[in-house]
Amino acid sequence: MRDLREDSDQTQQRIADVLNMHRSVYRRYESGERETPAWVVVKLADYYKVSTDYLLGRTDERVPYPSSRRK
User: Fold this and answer.
1) What is the C-alpha separation between 71 and 66, in angstroms, rounded?
2) CA-based Rg of the chain, rounded to a whole angstrom?
């Protein structure tokens, strides 16, 4: 999470604002002091346009898989 934030030239405060939470809560997620809830992972993946697997360290592929949802 930290690498993505820094690569995007964003502050912890900016990302906390996107997530509608206090910076101190986001900092704990980013540092690993608190487990990151699934809704935060999903919202960050959408924000950074990466897959949730990438955020969770399960793949090195940043690009999300194509959506299988039909609209």
Assistant:
1) 13
2) 12
